[in-house]
Amino acid sequence: MDDDSAELLAELGLSNYEARAYVTLAEHGAMTADDLAAESGVPRGRVYDVLNGLVDRALVRADDGRPRTYTHVEPTAAVDRLLERRVDELEQRRTSYEHVADRAETTLSALAPDHDGGEGFATSALGDEAARDLLDERFAAADASVRVVVQSLDVGPELRSAAVARIEQLLERGVEVRLLATDFANATETLERLVDDGLEVRVAERVPPQRFILFDDQEVCLEVVNPAADDELLAVVDFRDVDLAASLGRSFDDLWERAAAWNPGGD
Fold first, then answer.
1. Tens of pLDDT, residues 40-83
2. 50 near 22, Cβ under 8 Å?
3. DUF7436 domain location, by residue (predicted)?
């Protein structure tokens, strides 16, 4: 018997005995249960249960003779049916995990204390991938407002697909998101679409050279651009400090009030 084929069928959801029975039928054609048991190694006391299970799943067909004989369904149809069933099982498991994840997020969020004091906490992430992961985490945690300050709007972290998806989610939740920059030469249609969705964008004559993002007036992320690749981040430093956030928030608001609305059709 072809053990490799039996192992592949087992990966698609058949038991070891079911896989051995199907492969034996595929190799030898129609067989009685006793003959199949002798050839496949499936115990005689189990062979009828195994064959009936394969018949129920439309992988094997049985005639009405005495003794009854069994034959396999063509491999293409059989594998398609196994794959469809396996995918359905995985989708059900995914849905179940998503429900558990939603409950866990709600429960754990309720445990988080309110941060209304000035005591600070800082963490950092080094390297482009780790830095983007930290930014994504902080965007996802925002509840009320996000304010982004950059000099040049490039194709870097602010407008990568993951960040765009997070901004879209924030806007859908009613979170206020503002972007302040001086150079929009590299702005794309993606930015225009986000503006249509509610993103507020203004053009300033000047902004601080250090790129930063304010979250909920409580937290600040400072971005450090990689000097060897200006579309990558070298690091992100996250300060969860209300006093620092309040100070930068006042600076942002002052620059925002003096800035002009961004005109997508302008220079």
1. 999 999 999 999 999 999 999 999 888 899 999 999 999 999 99
2. no
3. 121-260
